Structure formats: C-alpha cells, structure tokens
Amino acid sequence: MQPILNSHLNELDEDIFHHFGFTTKSFDFKQKFGDVKFVCVCGSSNRIHNFAISMAKLSGIQLPVENIAGSHARFVLYKVDHILFADHGIGIPSTLILMHEMTKLLHYAGCKDVLFIRLGTCGGLGVKPGTLVMSDRCVNTKLEPYNELCILGKPVRRQTKVDLNAVNELKKLSENLSLQCSVVVGGTITANDFYEEQGRLDGAICSFSQEEKLAYLKSAYDHGIRNLEMEGTAITSHCNSTGHRAILVCVAVVNRLENDQVTISADDFKLFEQLPGKLVGEYLKRNSGLIAR
Amino acid sequence: MQPILNSHLNELDEDIFHHFGFTTKSFDFKQKFGDVKFVCVCGSSNRIHNFAISMAKLSGIQLPVENIAGSHARFVLYKVDHILFADHGIGIPSTLILMHEMTKLLHYAGCKDVLFIRLGTCGGLGVKPGTLVMSDRCVNTKLEPYNELCILGKPVRRQTKVDLNAVNELKKLSENLSLQCSVVVGGTITANDFYEEQGRLDGAICSFSQEEKLAYLKSAYDHGIRNLEMEGTAITSHCNSTGHRAILVCVAVVNRLENDQVTISADDFKLFEQLPGKLVGEYLKRNSGLIAR
C-alpha cells in the first residue's frame, strides 16, 4: 500500500514532536533512527521499559536503556538495535498521537515498511486468562473493519488490516517454543471504553441486562472474535495509511464469556503480562531485530 | 438530574477497581472517602500530584501526599481534605475508565453532587497562549453537545452540560485575583485525536488544505468555540449521567488560528500549565474544599 504523504511537512523548518519532547533539530534522525525495522508498543510506560531492558539483555547491550523522549514528554521512547519501544496510553485517541509522532519520526529517518507490534493485555472471548491472542483482523464495536475519524467535522473511515504473514510466522514460532500458554489466532474488537462499550455490567452506568450482554459477546464469538481491547484499530489503520505493517499480540486477563472483573491474582497478572514479550522477543531475535555481537 | 443507577453493582460481593489497583474490601470507602466534595483531574500524573501537593501545603497538611492507588494501577489517586485528585491520561476512552471507577468510588462512599474539575492544557481558538479558557459548553468535532458511545453495537448519545453556576463563580473570582493572565469563557471542542481531528496540518497524515483547516476553525470560532482538547465531553457526559457536576478550566498553549505546533518555551509551558491550578486552588480554598486548621 502506498503511504499517504503530508506535503505540509515539507514547509516546516523544524518539526516539534510535542508528546515526545524533542524536535527535528534535537538530533540527526537518519543517523539515530535510520536502521529501525520494528516498533514495539504497549499501554504502560513501565511495561514497555521492562521489555526494552529484556531485549537489551538478549542483545548484550550495556544497561540502562536510556529514554530518548524529553523530560516533559507524554510518551517514553527507547531503542535497542533495530527496534524502537514506546507506550501509547489507553485508547484510540492517545494511541493516534503516538502513531502520528512515531510515523513522522520514521519518515524523517527514511525508514519504510516497518513492522509495528502491539504487546497488550485484553479481555479474552471464550479463551482462558493467560491465553495469547494474535489478531487476524481488527474491528470496531459494530464488528466493522474500520477506524472512523471525524476530520473537519466529516466522517472518514480507514481500513484496519493486520500483517497476516507476520501473524503466521509468530503462530508457527509459538508452536516450536515452550511458552506454557495457549496461542489463539482470531478477531479483535477495539472499543472506546472499558466498561459499557465492552458490554461490562460492572461500570458506574449500565443500561443492559446480563442476557443482552451475553447475546452481544456470543454473537461476536460466532463471528470469530477472540478478544476485546482499546487500541488495535488505531495502530492498524494508521499503519495501513502510512506504508507500515502492524500486528497485535495480546494476553487475555479475563474470559469475558465468564466474567467482567479481572479476578486473577497480582502474581498471575505479572506473569501473564510478560507472555506477549516472550513470544515477540524470540521473533525479533530470529528476524534481525537484534545485532549479532 | 437523577443519577443512572447500575443495579448489577448490588450483586457484587467485592468490586475490583482494576485501574486503581484496589477493591471495595481494601478499605472502608465511607470512612475514607465519605467527605469528598470535589474531584480534580488532569491528563498527567505528575501534574495532578504537584497540584495535590500545593493544596496540601495550603491546608497545612504534612507532606508527602500518599498515592492511594495500588502499585500496579493505571491511574494515581490522592486526597487532601474534601478533595480527590486523579489523572485521566489522554482522550475520551482513557478518561471514561477513570470516570467509571471514580464515580463508583463516590457511590460506595455515599458522596452525592460532587463537583469534578478538569485542569487541562488545550489549543486556544482566537486566544493567546497563556489564556485560561473556562468552558460554557462542550461539543464534539461536529459541534454537537453530545458524547457518543457504541453500547452493544448501538449508538448512544449523552448530554455534556457543564455547571454554569460554578463557571460564573470562578469567572468572578478570577476578576478579583491578580492571576496575570486573561480568563475567557467559551465553548470547547473535544476531539478524538490531536492532529487530524483538530485540523492540524502537521500530523503524519493530512488530507486537507490550509484554507479548509481555517474555514473549519473559523466557523467553530464564530459558533463561540474558544478551545480544543480531548477529554471534556467524557467528563461532562459521565457527570450528567451519574448525578455529579463538571467544569473545565484549561490553559491555551497555542492559538490554533495562528499555529498548529506548540512553540512556546519549556519555561513558559511550565508556567502556563500551573495557571488552572492557581485559580481552581483559590476557588477550592474559599468553597470549603479545605479544612480550616
């Protein structure tokens, strides 16, 4: 797919990355980022920092891994060999900001066809807590494969295709590793809320019954949906429009056909949230994400 | 307005606040939170922490102000006298999570008619950087006074009224203080993106011209809009539905009729982002937010 270019960027003498806390004059983007092949993202700054550290250890790089983002930034940014790491916060709007600034960074650095990998937590649908769900498609809460923006007051829909080649490679790889968890490939719903939009009964407001909730979730299951989260359509649609690729590897922390609340123990949560990184880390190592030392 | 009750909550023996990292069994909510009259929120955890500290100093409370949220929480939570403080991240989805868990907390604590105050940064419309904008209404990017959710696949619109009494009180108060900044009352657009949805030309993707952008922003200005941000309709609509009240006090860091990028210096940014707290802090002190010691 051809990237949509923004010709207005050519008119800027200096481009300020407001949420990264640096500008195009802070350093030489081609020199600093020109070798990037992968971008790993997740919701929380702590979790992505820990993943960057684990990749640095795998690569034999001296710690600590320094945060490239400025001190007043809203996101963190780390780099290990050919991989960038950042957090995107919660939800599509926060994630779109990260995606705009990250793909501008790659544009100035001359990087093309980069694979974005979201390592997330999610609600599973018909799968046990601790199951890895890799998305074969990303849909909104109406089960449509689009992200909709409202640009200058008018609706614009963008496709949300995932890179199925990478999904298949990761699926095969998972079968050769002893991950001690199930790996499922299925559809992903991206919602704009954790409670009502995901059909939870335990928010401050709830206008539907247990039966109506289950009818919605079971219908989604019958359409091949296996998890619900809050950022997938933002990442895939933005990559589809900028010439990059995207996949989502999320771990279920609850089975939404059985429960709304996340009742697993703190220890299990800690263990589960590291599972996407175990699979993705191995994939990156085998696919030239790291420099052989 | 009558609060919408969620009768499903009565069926829970223990309610897990997933993003605050505690449960209804962690402490006695009535005893710990029963005297809350105000909830102050902003996007960043650091900024709200600093504001909580400044209120604690005003009240003569011993520092530090302890974070009530659990160690694996996604939001922070502080309390000083009758005021709670929390961060909501960026955008409507992240903010809705905070609002669901915060209003459940107030529900269990028995607090009614609480005033939520968002202290934010924003893009100004026809106002200089450093101007305080207090919202007299909150609209989406189509200039409609609603927040739209998609619940079980179907669209639901909720009103976004602000508490005009509190806005008028704050406006009057601002005239009696030497704030060294302008205070403007006007409409607020809440967008689902920082770049394209706010008509910026400097994102990674841009499909419109400078002329089309200005036509949109000038039309909004003519409709009384004075700033653009990313959370207002989430906070107001959720308060409208749960029997609480909400106001927004945001400082402009750019005038969008003149610029897209935030070009003010880091020192000015630091100074400006404290302005909402200066006005709101004085308001809270005079309106029984703090206990006289």
From TrEMBL, chains A, B:
Which family does the UniProt entry place this protein in? Belongs to the PNP/UDP phosphorylase family.
Highest lineage ranks of the organism? Eukaryota, Metazoa, Spiralia, Lophotrochozoa, Platyhelminthes
A cellular component term (GO) from this record?
cytosol
Q: What InterPro entries does the entry give?
A: Nucleoside_phosphorylase_d (IPR000845), Nucleoside_phosphorylase_sf (IPR035994), Uridine_phosphorylase_euk (IPR010059)
Q: Which residues bind phosphate per the record?
A: 74, 118-121
Q: Which PANTHER family match?
A: FI09636P-RELATED, URIDINE PHOSPHORYLASE
Which residue intervals define the domain Nucleoside phosphorylase in the entry? 37-274
Alphabetical list of Pfam families matching this protein: PNP_UDP_1
Q: Which SUPFAM superfamilies match?
A: Purine and uridine phosphorylases
- The gene designation is UPP1
Question: Which protein is depicted?
Answer: Uridine phosphorylase 1
Question: What GO terms in the biological process aspect are recorded for it?
Answer: nucleotide catabolic process; uridine catabolic process
An annotated Gene Ontology molecular function: uridine phosphorylase activity
Species assigned in the record: Schistosoma haematobium (Blood fluke)
Entry binding sites for substrate: 198, 200
Stored CDD domains: UP_hUPP-like
Superkingdom of origin organism: Eukaryota
